[in-house]
Amino acid sequence: MEELDFANASEKARKYINKWIEEKTEGKIVELLSNDSINPQTSLVLVNAIYFKGKWEKKFDRHRTREEMFKISKEKQKPVQMMFLKSKFRMTHIQDVSTQVLVLPYVGGQMDMVILLPDENTDLKMLEQGLTPEKLTDWLKPERMERTEVGVYLPRFKLEENLDIENILKKLGMSDAFDMFKADFSGISSGKDLFLSNVLHKAFVEVKEEGTEAAAATAVGFVGCCLCPYFVADHPFLFLIRDNSSKTILFWGKVVSP
C-alpha cells in the first residue's frame, strides 16, 4: 500500500498509479484510472491489475495460421486468423452439456489453458447455465481426460476488460468498507475517516502462436491434414487459465467475437 495526496494532487496521484500499473504489466495495461476516477474527495482506492505471460509447451506453427471464418452466431460470421497445431493433448467430451474440453499446457507444466467448446449446434448459454464449480472440478479430473493426438484450430484473440467491482464486493459482505461512518481501516491507518472510494480491476489476455499474454469434434470448412480428431474453435467458447498445483483459476473468459 502507498500513500498519495488525493486532496491536493489528485491528477498527479492518478498518473502515478497508472504509470506503476503500466510498468508492472509490461505496457499491456495502460490508463486503468480514467480522468474522472480520482478527485479531491477520494479517500482510498483499491486497484487490482493482473498480468500473465506464458509460452505454450507446444507452439502453434505460425506458417499454418490462415484466415478462416468464425461463426459468431447462426446469422453472423467474421474472418479471423486461425492457428493450427497437431499434437497430443488431454481432452474429453461432456455429454451433459454437449461440450468438448481441451487442455493446452504452458512451458513448465505449472499452468494450463482449458478451452470449453460447445458442439457446433449447442448454444454457449447452455454451457454457461450448466456450469458450476463442482461440475468444472469433475470435468477436469485426470481420469476423465484422454491424451490423444488432435488437430487443434484456435483463433488468435485479445481481450481487455475493465470492471468496477464495488457492487460485487458489497454483495459479498464488504459494504461497510465503502461507508465513511462504518469503515474500519485502523489496521493500516491511524485516521478514522478512511473508507473505500473505488475498487477497479482490469484484465488483459492475448492468445497467439507462441503463447498467451494475460494481462464433438468438427472440421466443417477446414481441409483435413491428419488422420486424427479435430478440435475446431470456430464458434463461441469459454476458456480459463489455471494453476495446476493449487487448482486456482487465474483467468476466466468468453470468446464470442475474436
Automatic annotation (TrEMBL):
Keywords noted in UniProt: Acetylation, Cytoplasm, Protease inhibitor, Serine protease inhibitor
Domain spans labelled Serpin: 1-258
UniProt-annotated location(s): Cytoplasm
Main location: cytoplasm
Entry superkingdom: Eukaryota
SUPFAM superfamilies documented for this protein: Serpins (SSF56574)
Pfam families: Serpin (PF00079)
A cellular component term, taken from the record's GO annotations: cytoplasm
Gene Ontology molecular-function annotations: serine-type endopeptidase inhibitor activity
Subunit: Forms a complex with the monomeric form of beta-tryptase.
Family listed: Belongs to the serpin family. Ov-serpin subfamily.
Protein name as annotated: Serpin B6
Upper taxonomic lineage: Eukaryota, Metazoa, Chordata, Craniata, Vertebrata
